[in-house]
TrEMBL record:
Residues 419-705 form the Alpha-amylase/4-alpha-glucanotransferase C-terminal domain. This is Alpha-amylase 1. It comes from Posidoniimonas polymericola. It is an enzyme of class 3 (hydrolase). One of its GO terms (cellular component) is extracellular region. Residues 9-270 form the Glycoside hydrolase family 57 N-terminal domain. The gene is amyA. The lineage of its organism: Bacteria, Pseudomonadati, Planctomycetota, Planctomycetia, Pirellulales. One of its GO terms (molecular function) is alpha-amylase activity. Its EC number is 3.2.1.1.
Amino acid sequence: MSPFVRLVLVLHNHQPIGNFDGVFEQTYQDSYLPFLDVYERYEGLPISLHTSGSLIEWLAVHHPEYLDRVANLVEQGRIEVIGGPFMEPILTMIPGRDRVGQIRAYSQYLHDRLGATVRGMWMPERVWEQTLTADIAEAGIQYTVLDDYHFRNAGWTPDQLHGYYVTEHDGRLLSVFPGSERLRYTIPFAEPQATIDHLRGIAEQQPGSIVTFGDDGEKLGSWPDTKQHVYDNGWLCRFFEALLANQEWLKVTTPGEAVDNVAPLGKLYIPEASYREMTEWALPAVQQNAYHDTQHLLEDEGRWELIQPFTRGGFWRNFKVRYPETNEMYCRMLQVSNRLAKLRTQGDGGELLDAAQYELYRGQCNCSYWHGAFGGCYLPHLRNAVYKALIAADNLMDQHEGRGWEGDRSYWVEVDADDYNLDGRKEIRLASNRLKAFLAPGEGGKLYELDVRSICHNLLATLSRREEAYHRKVLLGPTGDQGAVASIHDRVVFKQEGLDQMLQYDSYGRKSLIDHFYDIDASLDAVSMNEAREQGDFVTGAYESKLRRNPDRMQAQMWRDGNVDGAPVKVTKGVTLEAGGSELEITYLLENLPGDRPLHFSVELGMAGLPTGADDRYFVAGDGNRLGQLGTKLDLADVDSLNLVDEWLGIDVGLSMDRPTSIWTYPIATVSQSEGGFEMVNQSVVVQPHWILQADEHGRWSVTMRMKIDTTMAESRMHQAAEAATV
């Protein structure tokens, strides 16, 4: 057989739910549009294109002409559109019913909008578990693309991966193409001839082979430095010309054509995996560094290539352990999915539930559930977008049941306990038509979610400061510019100066109702940097709890018998919510206090989604005067109220206390990694009332705080928009 090889090119274009319009537009101008402009000029090079649902919906609104051009190429047979789950969830983190539902819904959308008959799918982040096979096949999919790393984990060698395999679960079959890691690093970072030489070697050694490239389309223009390299310097034109110049032995094709004309190499069961870098990111930070240190040591000794085929990183699902905040989001998503499924099982239907399902799918978008060089759990706007969708889905189901968030007839309140965050312990849910609060008695009695239903916003979508493996690079400083275009995995770029001085870590989750006992002289700076000494064991200690019910008033009461520097102290706190109200009443009773010395007691209140650095987000004193932007450090004494206003979001969070109070405020910011480099990202603002307290004659002390959440600004804008839409 004469030397011959098929090259399957699969491009994956994606932008997550909640990303800024400016990012969508810039990526369109830098990557999606110029690629199409170049590609249309080169006939005879069929490719496969995957565009995520979140991106294609944006394109449909802002650049429908782009989709019209893609549809024309589909009609010509030049582009094979591949589908997948509509809103790009990691399939292993959503229920099977949602896997099948998302895939089918997107296949139908692509057929209606682009005229595409969808046979294959993109596997989001290539996160794979073998049991997915049955659901994918049930959804009507014949093939997908994983990385060759997955196949090597099964024990297959590189020369066994020049084709595709079939895999099976519960009798359902799926064809799987191994995407070449070698090509992921040569396209577009090496000259086209490097790819041609690699393919020629395969054609000569294994004639008739199939070699698959599957990777992000954004690397062709929107990854750092690639626009100039790929388009201005002509890399993409040279690449396409090289492919055409070698057509006598190199056939560029699609997965569908390959499946129709080439038999599978065999049958294979594929271990759990993702792409190699993702499995490393899933490891704890210390283990990531140990892994890389060991790799470098073995490379220096010339032994790494012998051992590499048998090394594996971590398990994707453990991102929910590394980042408990993503577990909270995941569990909230499951609550919404399970509630919707229950309504469907009862035979309920209609437009409201269809809209709720759409919002659920949006809330399953994967990017804010993990982190690496990509992955957006460190990006507040992505987390906020997921919660916005999930809360909207809940609101729609409430509306379906006749108890929406606004209107006098909808006033209601309820309280219950269940294992809401799937940790084996019961949490408490306080809910009304205006607010929904989740408390964790087993973790310091903290308030870990507070949904403001009128604006679909979770005020506690916070993120703690924690060590990351790449912080070693931050401490070493940026790499010099060598003039070459580097893969995003190899770049060390600082988007701000002094990041090495900003690394701070938290020893507990930054939420609300965190109970602290500090040294008397603890300072704002020490507290904000998590360096103040804790005298007590209440921050993460387990509280006992009980629920108090009244038709129009529900309360969660929690208490702990703990210690403050060896002295037994009891802390009891109650959180009360009324029907129709937008206020949490928070009461504290401290008992068994030592009578021979004062104590420094503080209640930490973290709030997320209220950004710093903007003049329309600010603190307001009790006398109405502004005290600076929400990122301002404040050290207030003898006050009884403080408001946090976000005019853009349309919310005013008012805190009031029934006794004179000192208050600290400070921002929580992380040093994290993104495609563009290392940067400081604001995560939340902390408002921390604190008191130097002296017990009364009975060894007791108490305070009542109120958190009133006013969204009049936002609601007024909603009503104005609704009225304008009817005109």
